[in-house]
Amino acid sequence: MKYRGAQESEAHLRAKALIVASLEADARFSDVLVEKTWRGEVDPKSLRRPDVSARFEGLRIAFEAQLSTTFLDVVLDRREFYSQEGGLLVWVMPFFDPENRRMTADDIFFPNNSNVLLVDSETVALSQALGRLTFRCWIAHRVIGDDGRISTKWESRLVAWDDLTLDLRGQRIFAVDVDREEKAARERHSAAEVDREAADKDAVRRGWLDYFSYADGDIDFTTHEKLRESLRSEGLRLQIPMSGARYITLEVRSAVRAVLSAHTGKPIGFKFVTLVQVAHHLHDKAKGALLPFGCAIRAFGRTGLIAEADKSGKWGGRAVLVREGMAIGESCYLLEEEEHAFLCFLFPGLAGFMDRARGVVFAAGAHRIAEIKAGRVF
User: What is the 8-class DSSP label of residue 195?
Assistant: First the structure.
């Protein structure tokens, strides 16, 4: 209704002339026609009249000069028509200002992979000089900052027809695949976030493990507060007293040091010489630490060291009693839930093993006795 019977503007006529001159400069384009009716082959009743049409190596192409208002439903309708016809719709603008553009330009720009093609006197001259169709292309690159926010970095470049990707299915023609570029940037950002989070967790673990590596277990108030805050940041609910030389319960301290000892093959944080001495200490002072210690002994292959150091066989006899106690679910062999979670956080490689072992003892009964006594848990 808006354009029927209206006279074509000088700007629109000039834009079509620029497109025609650019196409005629490239001998690979044939049948360059202005305002030639394109009758549908799929639906013979449908037809369109593109500003300029041409053929390129058998592909029919419709060029539309976009100057003023082109409503979104019109854009979509034309895309669908040329897609059904196996042709390609190319929107071309005579000017584009990324900082002062119309919404109707965005309706063409963003669906076209954030690329927009322009023709002007400079691109026409270049097309004629090179004998190759050339456009000016504005591209909106997506940039993701460290905070995850997305910004747009505009770029303008001269591109030859051969530099463009023709996407018939999507009815797009672009110099840079901005969608793929953005996806890759998001993946890099996500990977960096994961790396940062992992580094933060490792720093927290190192702080705690450094503390537990000392036998006296005494730290200054500032370090104590940093350790407390690190637990809160990880969502761990372990209760830590505000003051005192020993900030962590004996069983938790003993459990962590026992796992460290099993990992290195020698006592860490204990004033002992052998691992069997650690085992006896846990039995006498911190039974809840025996289960993670046993898991670590098996995981790190230290059972031979225990047997070799147990010359009197005393630990072998105690170990039988420990397994029997676990088999009937004696609570003294289980750390509190938040203490267990803390241990799993410090030793993620053992977490699954310790979870399974704790689950077996927690749900212990007659049907578990054989499994526990066989030493598959401790």
Answer: H
Three-state secondary-structure class, residue 378: coil
At a CB cut-off of 8 Å and minimum separation 6, what does 20 contact? Answer: 32, 34, 52
Q: Quick one: tokens of 191?
A: 């990977």
Instruction: Per-residue pLDDT tens, the chain, 378 aa: give them.
Output: 344 444 578 888 999 999 999 999 999 999 999 999 998 887 778 889 999 999 999 999 999 998 765 566 778 888 899 999 999 999 999 888 888 877 767 778 888 999 999 999 999 999 999 999 999 999 999 888 888 888 999 999 999 999 999 999 999 999 999 999 999 998 988 888 888 878 878 877 887 788 777 655 555 556 656 666 776 667 666 655 544 434 567 788 899 999 999 999 999 988 899 999 999 999 999 999 999 999 999 999 999 999 999 999 999 999 989 988 888 888 888 888 888 888 898 899 999 989 988 887 776 544 444 554 455 444
- Are 329 and 341 contacting, i.e. CB atoms less than 8 angstroms apart? no
Distance CA 181, CA 143 (A): 9
User: Among residues 89, 58, 345, 325, which one has the least CA distance to residue 202?
Assistant: 345
- CA 347 – CA 342 distance, rounded (Å): 9
Query: Is the sign of the CA dihedral 124, 127, 128, 132 positive or negative?
Result: negative
**CA distance readout (Å), 158 to 123, 139, 155, 164, 286:** 8, 11, 10, 11, 75
Would you kindly state where each structural domain of the chain is located, as residue ranges? Answer: 10-176, 215-373
Q: Label residue 342 exposed, middle or buried (CB < 10 Å: 0-12, 13-18, 19+).
A: buried
CATH for 10-176, options being 3.40.1350, 1.20.58, 3.30.530, 3.30.1490:
3.40.1350
CA–CA distances in Å: residue 70 to residues 5, 8, 122, 168: 17, 15, 26, 21
CB 277 within 8 Å of CB 267? yes
For the chain, the distance separating the N- and C-terminal CA atoms, rounded to the nearest angstrom, is: 85
Q: How far is CA 372 from the centre of its chain?
A: 41
